[in-house]
Amino acid sequence: MLSLKISDLSTAELQNYLQYAIAPRPICFASTIDKSGNVNLSPFSFFNMFSTNPPVCIFSPARRVRDNTTKHTLENVLEVPECVINIVNYDMVQQTSLASVEYSKGINEFQKAGFTELKSELVKPPRVAEAPVQFECVVNDVISLGKNAGAGNLILAEIKLIHINEEILDADGKINQEKIDLVARLGGDWYCRVTKENLFKVAKPVRTIGIGVDSLPENIRYSKILTGNNLGQLGNVEHLPSLQEIEECNKNPQVHDFLKGLVENSPDRELKLHSFAKDFLEKGDVQTAWSILMS
Ligand SMILES: Cc1cc2nc3c(=O)[nH]c(=O)nc-3n(C[C@H](O)[C@H](O)[C@H](O)COP(=O)(O)O)c2cc1C
Fold it and tell me: Cα of 44 to ligand 1 centre, how many Å?
């Protein structure tokens, strides 16, 4: 393991390590306005939601590493404590990047990047019409993290009104994770796109209290076949399957035939059993996997 002391790194080196490792980061495309009414639009990936009730997002226009100057977005919210957080999808990503060019104060990046201004209902800064989701926000607080180049400035934005393009909704009115077609920022020039192919689900251990990896039988816990992900799935069940449950699962013809073909006491029996169970885990069928492992 390479271990790095912060004091041995330049700010640029530190930023590089942090941005490659703390990724992907969602993008807040923030529109703000100064007290004279000049509109500004800039992307920020030091961004996330931090509270649902009240609904609060934080994003951070940092002091420039190059020359320790502050960003127009920060100056604007200090003058007019409002913003719109526009969510960036794949179709917008190149123009969004263009909006990050350091145009002089007073230059409207909606025009420079070719986005359409949509009047907001509650706040002064306009929304980005092309964005699939737009949050009208009031800025409750701005917290400076220091005066050095690279220091962040946390903008605490409370969401007051949400606008969602109906095209990304399912029939039940909820956002469809594929349709929203999100992009995120990583290190350097890297971005990623959330597509059908790279989306997957992990069962939420909210209502159940999983037995935990430490409760798995030793031969499973230290399996040569099962991965950490597989152990996490197995440890997320509330109890080991009962004899009755195992028998029920083993009625599955595929499982039945496999178990019938296994030679009792053969040296590779356990490896074969674990490999077979792993196939079911990869498909998300934890119950059958458990039944196979306990057979
Ligand atoms: C996708 C993306 C994400 C960015 N994230 C941040 C960020 O989180 N913090 C930051 O200070 N600058 C970030 N930048 C750079 C700012 O967008 C850039 O400095 C911009 O010119 C600031 O504009 P302003 O001075 O008009 O506010 C990002 C740029 C891009 C393209």
Answer: 5
